[in-house]
Amino acid sequence: MISVAFHTQDVTLYPRLRRLAEQWRLPFLQASADTDALPFLLLATPCARPPGYRLSLCAHDDCDASRISIDFDSAKLLYRVLHGGGRRQALAKALGIGSAASLRLLDLTAGLGQDAFVAAALGCQVTMVERHPAIAALLDNALARARHTAQDRHGKTREAVDRMKLVHADAIEYFSRPSVQTAVDTVYLDPMYPAHSKSAKVKKGMALLQRVLAADPDNSRELLRHALQSGIKRIVLKRPKNAPVIGSPVGQVRSKATRFDLYTGTG
Ligand SMILES: C[S@@+](CC[C@H](N)C(=O)[O-])C[C@H]1O[C@@H](n2cnc3c(N)ncnc32)[C@H](O)[C@@H]1O
Fold first, then answer.
1. Pocket of ligand 1, candidates 106, 109, 189: which has the most ligand atoms within 8 Å of its Cβ, to mutate?
2. By the number of CB atoms within 10 A of the CB, which of 11, 232, 235, 267 ranks highest?
3. Range(s) of the domain holding residue 14
4. Residue 189 shares a structural domain with residue 235
């Protein structure tokens, strides 16, 4: 059962939140409503840029301490794009970005869209697939705000988000559509795994994400199996550096904390 509801303290946002709640098939709780039954809230606050509100996700009993939101125009993400190693960074090598002009990347586990954004900033056309409606709503809101961001000095943010598309669907169902598989160069899988970061802030955010997603079964092996049955030449599975290897990768790219296992579709 999905226990997330849209919520706001700003009554002027009520009509928009009602429409959002219908769109994402989640409940809408008015400010006066008893929120105890719903452990997680998608909080909307007014924002000058379209679509006029900013969404963040929090545990309703701990909203001030820890919130998840996505800002594709954040200084941190821009720094990663400008100084993260470009096409020489592990993610780019794993995806096969190399000198390819415009790789078509299918990110079947979009999450907070951070890897997808970096790939898009490096020139990939990225389709992000996310099954959880609350995470998909966060991504959708972040993409909309970033399309209207004040242009950064390098023009990177808008350039990148213009190459990103969001699909709210189960990846296995979406991937089994034949037209999808013919339009992809690389498939990327980054299933959830326990957080090991020493940073308290990262830990809290990851712990919250894990709680929100706790009811969803881990289907990473099934996702990989489906991808391997396709004719796609490059399938990338992101894993913690010491996690057991699944199946028989044809290659590996390592970074400090992460290992990217590379597979080839056999279909
Ligand atoms: C660890 S997060 C991905 C993080 C992402 N790479 C990033 O950079 O932010 C994993 C995400 O995959 C999603 N997911 C897992 N199985 C899925 C499936 N079958 N279809 C679509 N999304 C799925 C989860 O809901 C979760 O949001």
1. 109
2. 235
3. 4-68
4. yes
Q: Is 167 in the pocket of ligand 1 (CB under 6 A)?
A: no
Ligand 1: which residue has its CA nearest to atom 9?
A: 112
**Residue that terminates a domain, selected from 40, 68, 96:** 68
Distance 175 CA to ligand 1 centre (A): 14
* Six token digits for residue 105: 């990347």
The reply to whether ligand 1 has any atom less than 6 angstroms from the CB of 73 is no
Co-location of 29 and 90 in the same domain: no
Q: Are residues 47 and 82 in the same domain?
A: no
Edge-first strand order for the sheet with 28-29 is 28-29, 4-7, 40-46, 53-59, 67-68
DSSP H or E segment with residue 59: strand 53-59
The pTM of this model reads 0.94
Task: Judge if 248 and 197 occupy the same domain.
Answer: yes
Between the CA of 132 and the centroid of ligand 1 the distance, in Å, is: 8
Reported as a single tens digit per residue, the pLDDT across 125-181 is 999 999 999 999 999 999 999 999 876 777 889 999 999 999 999 999 999 998 999
Asked if residues 167 and 174 have their Cβ atoms less than 8 Å apart, the reply is yes
Residue nearest ligand 1's atom 3 by CA: 111
Query: Per mean pLDDT, which range of 14-18, 31-35, 74-78, 185-189 is the poorest?
Result: 31-35
Nearest ligand 1 atom to the CA of 238 is: 6
Residues 6+ apart with CB under 8 A from 83: none
- What the block records as the tokens of 49 is 């840029």
In the chain, how many domains are there? 2
